[in-house]
Write a structure and sequence with these properties.
about 100 residues; alpha+beta; 3-stranded antiparallel β-sheet; 4 helices; L-rhamnose mutarotase; Rham/fucose_mutarotase; Dimeric_a/b-barrel
């Protein structure tokens, strides 16, 4: 299983709404993520908007491609894009995995 961690930056003035939206992720989006191979997926956010995402998957590139092929993801990304700083494109395209330097099983 591949462990993936990434950083993004939510605009501080949009943070509360971002949290509200993620408290009510659409059921079809949740299902699409699961079907695409996104497991144990968590998002953490600091008060200044720094977002840390973590997921486990067999193949991150394949999981991203599977999500990119869904209509629900296109709708979700279009709605989420205005929340982020420093992105040229969709949020899911701005997720650059961090290099894992230690893991304790």
């Amino acid at each position: 299983m591949q462990r993936v961690c990434f950083l993004l930056k939510v605009k501080p003035d949009r943070l509360e709404e971002y949290r509200r939206r993620h408290a009510e992720v659409w059921p079809e989006m949740r299902a699409a993520l699961s079907e695409a191979g996104w497991h144990n997926y968590s998002i953490f956010c600091r008060e200044d908007g720094l977002l840390v995402g973590y997921l486990e998957t067999e193949d991150f590139a394949a999981a991203q491609e599977a999500m990119a092929a869904t209509a629900v993801n296109a709708r979700w990304q279009a709605e989420m894009a205005p929340f982020f700083e420093g992105l040229d494109g969709r949020p899911d395209e701005g997720m650059v995995p961090l290099t894992e330097v230690f893991h304790l099983d």
